[in-house]
Amino acid sequence: MQLVRPDSVADAVAALGNGSVALAGGTELVPLLRSRLAAADTLVELRDVVPKGIDGPRIGAGTTLGKLEVDPQIPDALREACRLAASPQLRATGTIGGNLLQATRCWYWRLDFPCRLHGGERCHARDGQHREHAIFANDFCASAHPSDPAAALLALGATVRTDRRELPLADLYRLPTEEDRATTTLAPDELILELEVPQPDASAYLMAMDRRRWAFALVGVVAARFADGTTRVALAGAAPIPWLLDSLDAATPLPRTEYKVRIAETLVRRARAALEQPR
Ligand SMILES: Cc1cc2nc3c(=O)[nH]c(=O)nc-3n(C[C@H](O)[C@H](O)[C@H](O)COP(=O)(O)OP(=O)(O)OC[C@H]3O[C@@H](n4cnc5c(N)ncnc54)[C@H](O)[C@@H]3O)c2cc1C
Ligand code: SF4
User: What is the pLDDT of residues 81-101, one digit of tens each?
Assistant: First the structure.
């Protein structure tokens, strides 16, 4: 395997695709390569290419979660979502761009079962063990999206800038289907460069985990209230993609995941109440 270090976005994009894969912090990609869940002839190092840092509402996609969790310019919900993600070592290395593109934690997928997300014909989780799986949009693939920051950015109404387009964060994701098993709309040679995050009047992130630290969200709830009086609520760990909540009544929990709906109800109530607390 080769490593290339382009020094411009154009060179990086030209080097991608056809067996070449982008490498940011490597905290997700390297384990996937080691376990042969991802394959690459060439790794395209993004360090000198993708912007880093925070400038008001703009966040470089190469900014680490560790930087985001302590920057006062960042809305509370996103700071908290970064602080609660992974471990300090991983947050010091893992970037926000890589976090948004991390693969599912579904244990069948990680063990390389020939499931629908791997192009197969069955969802092994629906028929098998799915305690941590999705409570929305789970009929084709029942995986639960693992990113806390993605749910925060969804509720905050963030925009993603790539090397070729600008899109609402919601449009970065898609539900997998029979014809197309991808869960993002990013092209294989497309780079996320920057995020733009509107400043809410108030926002909060609450998360339920199996342990108090360093576990993926069983359910994560983000609430964000804006100057025009609207409040948006989004969930992590609830659907194959970050989920903008309309109503919990629409949940379709599989057997043994009903408890997630109860957790979500409580966390939504608490997150909305947190928006009313004086800062
Ligand atoms: C043990 C463990 C626990 C974790 N716990 C949590 C958790 O609780 N909550 C949570 O939200 N996350 C969690 N994570 C995920 C972690 O936050 C991500 O691994 C990390 O943020 C990925 O960033 P990276 O820079 O290392 O990405 P990489 O591993 O370098 O890349 C990940 C993917 O994104 C692509 N990519 C990276 N940057 C770009 C870009 N700018 N444009 C286009 N493609 C790009 C890569 O090609 C690759 O496919 C955990 C990870 C681990 C290993
Ligand atoms: S939930 Fe999705 S990733 Fe997991 S086994 Fe089913 S199809 Fe595969």
Answer: 999 999 999 999 999 999 999
Nearest atom of ligand 2 to the alpha carbon of 240:
2
Residue 213 has pLDDT above 90, yes or no: no
Taking the C-alpha atoms of residue 236 and residue 170, their distance in angstroms, rounded to an integer, is 13
Q: What is the rounded CA–CA span in Å between residue 213 and residue 230?
A: 32
Say yes or no: CB of residue 80 within 6 Å of ligand 1. no
The one-character DSSP state at 228 is T
Ligand 2 atom closest to the CA of 140, numbered from 1:
7
pLDDT above 90: residue 279: no
Determine how many CB atoms are found less than 10 A away from the CB of residue 277.
Answer: 8
Contact 114, 120 (CB under 8 A): yes
Lookup: tokens for 250: 């629409």
- 185 Cβ contact list (under 8 Å, min separation 6): 167, 171, 172, 173, 174
Pull the structure tokens for residue 197: 């995050």
- Determine the Cα–Cα distance for residues 173 and 16; give it in Å rounded to an integer: 20
Question: What distance in angstroms lies between residue 25's CA and the mean position of ligand 1's atoms?
Answer: 7
